[in-house]
Write a structure and sequence with these properties.
CATH class of chain A: Alpha Beta
Oligomer: heterodimer
Helix content of chain A: 25-40%
Strand content of chain A: 5-15%
Order of helices and strands of chain B: HH
Radius of gyration of chain B: 16 Å
Order of helices and strands of chain A: HHEHEHEEEHEHEEHEHEHHHHEEEHHEEH
Distance between the termini of chain B: 41 Å
Structural class of chain A: alpha/beta
Strand content of chain B: under 5%
Number of domains of chain B: 1
Largest interface: A-B, 37 and 38 residues
Number of helices of chain B: 2
Shape of chain A: globular
Number of strands of chain B: 0
Number of domains of chain A: 1
Distance between the termini of chain A: 20 Å
Largest sheet of chain A: 11 strands, mixed
Number of helices of chain A: 15
Chain lengths: ~475, ~60
């Protein structure tokens, strides 16, 4: 911790410690973040809407509380951003669309936004995303593409591209995204930050604009494993108004950050699951495996069928959700999503039902795999960030549209709701991540392994343009 | 497997479910329906047990 906090993109943990110990005021931290966003956001197009007035008011409240001797929360004074599908009181919840801009403003914050603010974090704005979250690229015809802070001519990945870019560019230390088929993990990989998709049903989604109720998750981005854990812990807790939220005790991950690998049986995904990747995705996985001394290989079965089933459910539920908007306002959709939503709305119920039944079977298959291992490492994306104008990527010798290839390794895992962290691996010209995959409800182990990769120097999330590059880590 | 081989088929299906598909979108919609059909076919090839493999959608009364 240094006195540079107001100007430097410090971690959330550092900021909270500095604010709590009176080394810096929350107001100064927020003003510095707003200044950085004003300077750097035009290059990244990460933020769509700022909440500066609200943020400063909240910062002054926190500073006053601290001055009165109130013990601040674990995220005191930490600026954060949310993908613009999160409700923010007083703003329309855009979800990347033009259509929702005319919607009534949200009357309250999303549950997890409220919980982060109760922990002392301060919302500074909302970020761009692919329309209605049906996207792996970060492109958006209404608001422009979010741009990768490590090379602004390249994709951020999506659909939570603005949140990943906001963290990678050092605009804020924390941001929230959502992940239905990979929309946290894909941009985390391409932008070189940590991202967590918790177990399905762990974090409440109430107050977020849905995409696929069967598969939607919310989760954080951060530049360190500790920040990921702090954010995740602050958001935990049952919410009876989210039908998918499971009534479980809070199981904090922060106490396990320094547990190391003791007692964990680790394996690396192999075989068909990792097919279709470039040399760099294989190299990222190999480096992580080597530094952790992992020799066990496991095959995650039936990934192609799992992707197919997730895609059928996604199309059908997404299409059904937007049925009335398609009927009344089709011309206002982003051309990148419109035809897919239309097709989804016409998908026969028998196909969807079959896909949901396969999901049950696949859950059992993978649970069996986890009888002999605790953690599996796999690539997050088969490639690092493609160029913004790139149409396809060579995958297993075949040209595949960019939008279809980026979720290759992410989609089968969210399909069955496993907790997964995407961890940025150092040593590449452009960032690329690996997935740390755990059993349901074992986020603490997942984050502990992410922390160990960081401690052993193979994982890092340097701020883009900070002079600390991926290749020099 | 599917009969989504023409824009007309897409148009008729849309009309049948009360979702008219404007002509300029039909080819894109048809291509996407073909893709969904191929994926559904792959899913359909998996053996499923009538009793064990209930749909993974659950409703919890609260």
């Amino acid at each position: 911790m240094t006195t540079e906090v107001p100007g430097a993109p410090a971690t959330a943990a550092d900021i909270a410690a500095a604010v709590a110990s009176h080394k810096v005021s929350a107001a100064a931290v927020v003003k510095a973040a707003l200044g950085r966003i004003g300077m750097r956001n035009p290059a990244f197009n990460a933020f769509v809407t700022m909440t500066a007035e609200r943020a400063l008011a909240r910062a002054w409240e926190i500073d006053n509380e601290i001055a009165r001797g109130v013990t601040p929360g674990p995220l005191a004074g930490v600026p954060f951003a949310v993908k613009n599908l999160y409700d923010v009181a007083g703003l329309p919840t855009l979800a990347g669309s033009r259509i929702n801009a005319s919607a009534r403003p949200a009357s309250a914050d999303a549950v997890v936004v409220r919980r982060l603010e109760e922990a002392g974090a301060i919302l500074v704005g909302t970020t761009g995303m692919g329309e209605y979250a049906y996207d792996f690229t970060g492109k958006n015809s209404h608001y422009g593409p979010t741009r990768n802070p490590h090379d602004t001519e390249r994709l951020t990945g999506g659909s939570s591209g603005g949140s990943a870019a906001a963290v990678a560019g050092g605009l804020v230390p924390l941001a929230l995204g959502s992940d239905t088929n990979g929309s946290i993990r894909v941009p985390a990989s391409l932008c070189g930050v940590f991202g967590l998709k918790p177990t399905f049903g762990r974090l409440p989604r109430r107050g977020t604009f849905p995409f696929v109720a069967s598969l939607d998750h919310v989760g954080p981005f951060a530049r360190t494993a500790r920040d990921l854990a702090l954010t995740y812990d602050a958001m935990q807790g049952f919410d009876a108004d989210d039908p998918a939220c499971v009534d479980r005790a809070v199981e904090p991950a922060t106490p396990s950050l320094n547990r190391g690998l003791g007692g964990l049986r680790l394996a690396v995904a192999s075989g068909d699951f990792v097919a279709g990747g470039t040399a760099e995705s294989g190299e990222a996985l190999a480096r992580a495996a080597a530094v952790l001394g992992i020799t066990l290989r496991v095959e995650i079965p039936e990934a192609a069928r799992a992707r197919a089933a997730a895609s059928v459910i996604t199309a059908a539920e997404g299409g059904a959700l937007h049925f009335e908007r398609l009927r009344a306002r089709a011309a206002e959709f982003d051309p990148n999503t419109r035809d897919r939503f239309f097709a989804g709305a016409l998908t026969p119920a028998a196909w969807v039902n079959r896909a949901q039944r396969f999901r049950q079977r696949y859950r059992r298959q993978i649970a069996k795999l986890f009888e002999s291992v605790d953690i599996i490492l796999a690539p997050t994306t088969p490639v690092s960030a493609p160029r913004l104008d790139q149409a396809s990527v060579l995958s297993a010798g075949i040209d595949v549209p960019v939008g279809r290839v980026l979720g290759l390794y992410a989609q089968p895992l969210s399909f069955i709701g496993l907790p997964v962290a995407s961890v940025p691996i150092a040593g590449f010209d452009m960032p690329i991540g690996i997935q740390v995959i755990g059993r349901p409800w074992e986020e603490a182990s997942v984050i502990a392994v992410a922390a160990e990769l960081e401690r052993r120097g193979v994982a890092a999330a340097p701020v883009a343009g900070s002079g600390t590059t991926f290749w020099s880590q | 497997m599917s009969g989504f081989d023409s824009d007309d088929a897409v148009a008729q299906l849309g009309m049948a479910v009360g979702l008219p598909i404007p002509p300029e979108y039909r080819e894109g919609v048809r291509q996407n329906l073909q893709l969904i059909a191929r994926m559904a076919e792959l899913v359909g090839e998996a053996p499923l047990d009538d009793a064990e493999d209930e749909p993974a959608t659950a409703f919890v009364p609260r």
